[in-house]
Amino acid sequence: MQKESEYQHPLADINLLIHAPARLTILSILYVIESADMVFLLRQTGLTWGNLSTHLSKLEEAGYNQIDKSFKGKSLTPR
Predict the structure, then answer these.
(1) Torsion over CA of 51, 54, 60 and 62, rounded to 10 degrees?
(2) Structure pTM?
(3) What is the phi/psi pair of residue 20, to 5°?
(4) Tens of pLDDT along 4-13?
(5) What's 37's DSSP letter?
(6) How many whole angstroms from its chain centre is CA 54?
(7) SS3 of 51, please?
């Protein structure tokens, strides 16, 4: 039997970086599909653009994902 001072709650060791609900949702989606664009993740998570961007940046800083930025669509050419 453990003494009260030795008891550690089972959730004490969870990684708060990845177990925050929004980040866990993002990582779960990316695990299954391996890659996604922002619009897809916005629709799947229901997060705002800024909120999603912040969560993705935090996950990238920790090495859980990689963000590749690009622009697709119309291009502008100077006259």
Answers:
(1) -110
(2) 0.73
(3) -65, 135
(4) 667 887 777 7
(5) -
(6) 8
(7) helix
Which of 50, 56, 48, 54 lies closest to 29, judged by CA? 56
Query: Tokens 């090495």 belong to which residue?
Result: 63
CB atoms within 10 A of CB 34: 7
Pseudo-torsion of CA 34, 74, 46, 41, nearest 10°?
0
* 55 close to 22: Cβ distance less than 8 angstroms: yes
Nearest CA among 15, 17, 56 for reference residue 48: 56
Decide if 52 contacts 42 (C-beta within 8 A): yes
How many Cβ atoms sit within 10 Å of the Cβ of residue 42?
16
What is d(CA 51, CA 56) in angstroms, rounded to the nearest whole number?
Answer: 9
